[in-house]
Amino acid sequence: MSEVLGSLEVERSFQRSSxxxxxxxxxxxxxxxxxxxxxxxxxxxxxxxxxxHRYDEFKNSKDPDAVQSIKNHLESRLYKSLTKSHVxxxxxxxxxxxxxxxxxxxxxxxxxxxxxxxxTILMRIEGKYFPAWICMTPDTICFAxxxxxxxxTDYVPLYEVKQIMSLGGEAWSIETVEGGINSGRTxxxxxxxxxxxxxxQWMVDIEQQRMKDAEDAANxxxxxxxxxxxxxTSATSQAVxxxxxxxxxxxxxxxxxxxxxxxxxxFAYMSAPLYALDVFFIxxxxxxxxxxxxxxxxxxxxxxxxxCVFDILVVAASFVALxxxxxxxxxxxxxxxxxxxxxLMVKMKQLRHIxxxxxxxxxxxxxxxxxxxxAMAVFAVFGVQFFGTRTPDFATFLRAxxxxxxxxxxxxxxxxxxxxxxxxYEVDQTVLVYIGLxxxxxxxxxxxxxxxxxxxxxxxxxxxxxxxxxIKLMHIANVRNCTQFKLEILMTAISTLFxxxxxxxxxxxxxxxxxxxxxxGYLSFQEMQAGFRKLxxxxxxxxxxxxxxxxxxxxxxxxxxxxxxxxxxxxxxRRALKLRHTKHITDLLxxxxxxxxKELPIVLHTIRHMLLFQNNEGTHRRAEKRLENLSRRMxxxxxxxxxxxxxxxxxxxxxSPPCNPQAGGG
Length: 666
Hints:
Blueprint: H1 2-22, H2 27-38, H3 56-59, H4 64-74, H5 77-84, H6 89-92, E1 117-125, E2 128-136, E3 140-145, E4 154-157, E5 161-168, E6 171-176, E7 186-191, H7 199-217, H8 220-232, H9 235-258, H10 271-294, H11 299-303, H12 306-323, H13 344-347, H14 349-387, H15 397-408, E8 420-421, E9 426-427, H16 429-480, H17 488-494, H18 501-515, H19 525-534, H20 545-551, H21 566-591, H22 600-613, H23 617-647
Antiparallel strand pairs: 1-2, 1-7, 2-3, 3-4, 5-6, 6-7, 8-9
Helix pairs in contact: 1-7, 9-10, 10-12, 14-15, 14-16, 18-21, 21-22
């Protein structure tokens, strides 16, 4: 088992390093966490403003370090800088959490409802203990530094655990691999619980879960399924399958044209080859269906895709047609072979988008079609009353409805009710009014309304799909050009996670709290680089020093030590968000031709940003502080001038008219 763990660590470490170079690191981990979040209810924890009972488990511990950890946390520079900036610590842990479950968050609570085991713990940082929570899910070890479970500050995938060591007593450590999420960081911990929460039990449980995770990852079935899925979804495989579908359809067309199974047909010699070709195509399509099913993680995932269900029905219908080929009078089943060509909709995205747009537009048009049917029924009732005794075509309601339907299909009006009555060929006023109203109301108005609704819904669905593809291409372009604006991914994620200025400030404070892993109140480049990598953004933000210099306005926001305070970090994030909206307006020039009118949401985002931050509270507070400093300096200057005047024995009072410098007065 140790050999399996060692080889798995090497393999995953290599995959991790390769994924960092490709720019899509942590995609699987983040996707897994987001998928888990979407299936569980939101954790809501309400604490009092004094934060008192949040630390009850630490205060009640017999370990003196637990009580000291609370003091270390509340007296840390991080805590003081946040409170000095008028940040509500309780509300801070709900920052950037206004999505309502529709948008994946970038910071999440501790996944206690998914955990196998959880408890309070002490985390040693730079020689001091701080309160924390720890929980272990089936594939991750999660931490909440500060003792508030609403913000997960660190997480370690089990495959990145390099070593677990005991440091004596209840102290122990978790060492991570180089090139992983935590970049080889070692977490020094101390258990304050008893029995199941002791350090020994935690190390045993983590090691057992780590071995189980290694066995699951080394499962040959999963590896085979991944390879099958990669092979099946490749462009070459899909092109070959599409060519086979077209070849099968051509064979069906030739069979329908030549009719080799017809008695006395001159193409009877083609019957055996066409039958063998039909059997070949059915076997190929059945094997392709099985291959597709094996590429899915489960039968539920396969059957939840409607296009896969359509594939099953088509292949099943083909087998029915093959089995009934020798049955007398069952030739109608052979026509089922023709629907195999519809499988091209599954393989070709453009056809699939058109079919989806048609189905989307068909349902709303049923309402207009229902109005048209009601109007036809009314005309059929009138026809029975007016012409029921003159012609059998209007003797009953159904006959009258069918006669009107033939008129709608541009067929002839019934011969028993001519418009010109012989022998004088005078105009039948009843027939003229009846036909005229029917043509105007039904054929000219209501039928066009049905077609208009159908086309309108189709155009809307097509524009929506075009807009979605344009946004996807724009997102890919942003990811490729992330070296120009590294925080584009983060800004895109947080731009819809707040509604007010206060919520934005709480979100920035929560992000700063997560990034400052030593609670020093300042962020270095290394802390931002490691912290941004842990955010649940897709793709992962891999910050480089050149990007750090750019987002800090060429270092103007940094202090003498090259670090960011909370105030500077707040200004940096506001500047980055403003740049993001500006860049979005520029991107509209590229997508405008493809999706006219779809720029409104982005424009609204920009206007919303201007409304939120044009006159924010921070600007007013800084202006008031500057006025206070200026007023204080003016008072000192006035006192100095008065004292200077009295010291030299000047009999002139301070409030006397000043001397004119141009006149040489002093």
